[in-house]
Write a structure and sequence with these properties.
Elements: H1 3-28, H2 37-50, H3 63-71, H4 94-105, H5 110-135, H6 140-152, H7 154-159, H8 166-184, H9 191-202, H10 211-225, H11 232-261, H12 269-275, H13 282-307, H14 310-313, E1 315-316, H15 319-339, H16 358-384, H17 397-416, H18 424-427, H19 433-446
Length: 452
């Protein structure tokens, strides 16, 4: 069986496992027990009934009622005013417009809308594989490992099995990374097309705004590392050609927001912050616990909730589950060290240093910029509101998954020796399967605890 055949079989198995686990989360997660799910659902309902787009206003957020809902685990007797939970009405509309089709077809069935997010998540998994293959065309196990990590992070699976616009935002970010990477590799991808993808992001979720900075970083680095093959004039032209369609598409939504909320509230965030003004604030937590205590809690909660803290942050992964994840991270980190050991050359063949790959260097520069931008967004949001939810770092999930898969591949290089086609390169990604087992346990033993 050829390597390509194995690649397709393993990728199909990853996607099939992803769907199986996501559907299990969908079915076993009680209604509304996913972050902000009622507000996202009600946005879709409003679009389905009245067209686009709703306006956020006073009364869309009621902290006392939300506390009653979450403390009772959304018990039946508390749901009379659930339709009034509409504090996501400031969000860009694309996800909700698309989901409204499913809403009308299924008469607002919650599981069907969750499945719509799951379908989008499958696209993210496939795009992750495509991106990694663009970056490392001859390292299929790394691409498959990265795709599997994106597919099987428990909290990520839970989010992609709920009603939430994160799913479409991740599709946009992944598609932009793939298109930009292929462009830097010399494929016939128009620069303006990458800009269109970024513009679509501005109609999807504000966190995709990082693309307006990250993609130009990649284009500039690609020119800088190309050893004169790409002129500074061409780089400047490409950046402008990228930004023009992105900003023109985004300007449609910004102009609408100015007409509704007034200038300079181009993203509706000012209106949102005024509506949710009694949301827990960072300054209050620092005053109560001190700065050191705040930092410790922020780091711990962010890490745990990145991997799994289900419901409305009610059920974090337990200690032994976190230990398994830390072992996986440790194995990958040590694999990076092991991978620095030069691989032996076949008998009679002298080793030669690999030629520098300028496009790969530029793409990694773009990925580093993405991780920094995602972290900066997270920190900025938490400067005002206390929102230590690791899922807000998922715009950087693809590079983080790729880094982990490359670390595991270090062990494969060591075990394979000079045989580049050894099966050890494939089996080195096997530790990722611990996440599959962890998800099975969570779905059958943890998630049911969210029931009223």
């Amino acid at each position: 069986m050829t390597r390509t055949t194995w690649e397709r079989i393993v990728l199909a198995l990853i996607v099939a496992l992803y769907f199986g686990l996501a559907i299990a989360y969908n079915v076993r997660t009680p209604a509304w027990q996913a972050p902000d799910e009622p507000a996202h659902y009600n946005y879709i309902a409003q679009v389905s009934a009245n067209g686009c787009c709703p306006v956020i206003e006073q009364g869309d957020w009621d902290s006392a009622y939300l506390a009653q809902l979450t403390s009772s685990r959304f018990a039946a007797g508390t749901l009379d005013a659930l339709a009034d939970v509409q504090y996501e009405d400031h969000q860009p509309p694309l996800y909700y417009v698309l989901a409204s089709v499913m809403f009308r077809l299924t008469n607002g069935n919650l599981s069907a809308l969750r499945l719509f997010s799951t379908l989008l998540g499958a696209i993210v998994v496939l795009l992750t594989f495509m991106f990694a293959k663009t970056l490392y065309p001859r390292r299929s196990p790394v691409a498959l490992g990265a795709a599997a990590l994106v597919a099987f992070v428990p909290q990520h699976l839970a989010i992609l099995s709920s009603v939430n616009n994160d799913a479409l935002a991740e599709v946009v970010i992944a598609a932009a990374l793939v298109a930009a990477a292929q462009l830097m590799r010399g494929a016939r991808v128009p620069v303006w097309a990458v800009g269109v993808i970024a513009g679509i992001g501005l109609l999807t979720k504000l966190n995709t705004v990082v693309l307006l900075g990250v993609i130009p970083v990649g284009l500039v680095l690609n020119g800088a590392f190309s050893r004169g093959k790409i002129t500074s004039r061409r780089v400047a032209r490409d950046v402008i050609v990228f930004l023009i369609p992105a900003l023109l598409i985004g300007a449609v939504w910004m102009a609408r927001n100015i007409s509704v909320y007034g200038f300079p509230d181009i993203f509706g965030l000012g209106a949102h912050d005024a509506v949710v003004s009694d949301q827990p604030r960072t300054a209050e937590l620092i005053a109560r616990e001190g700065f050191d205590g705040y930092v410790r809690r922020a780091l711990e909660t962010t890490f745990v909730s990145f991997w799994g803290q289900f419901g409305w942050m009610a059920l974090p992964l337990s200690g032994w589950m976190i230990a398994l994840i830390l072992i996986l991270i440790g194995v990958s980190a040590l694999g990076w060290v092991v991978g620095m050991i030069p691989a032996p050359s076949p008998p009679g063949v002298s080793a030669a240093p690999p030629a520098p790959d300028s496009a790969r260097q530029a793409i990694w520069g773009m990925l580093i910029a993405l991780m920094i931008a995602a972290l900066a967004q997270y920190i900025y949001y938490n400067l005002e509101f206390w929102q230590h939810q690791g899922r807000y770092l998922y715009p950087a999930l693809i590079p983080l998954a790729l880094i982990t898969a490359l670390g595991l591949d270090g062990w494969g290089q060591l075990l394979a020796g000079y045989d580049k086609h050894s099966s050890f390169r494939w089996w080195a990604q096997a530790p990722v399967l611990v996440l599959v087992a962890l998800n099975v346990f969570v779905v059958w033993r943890v998630i049911p605890s969210l029931a009223p």
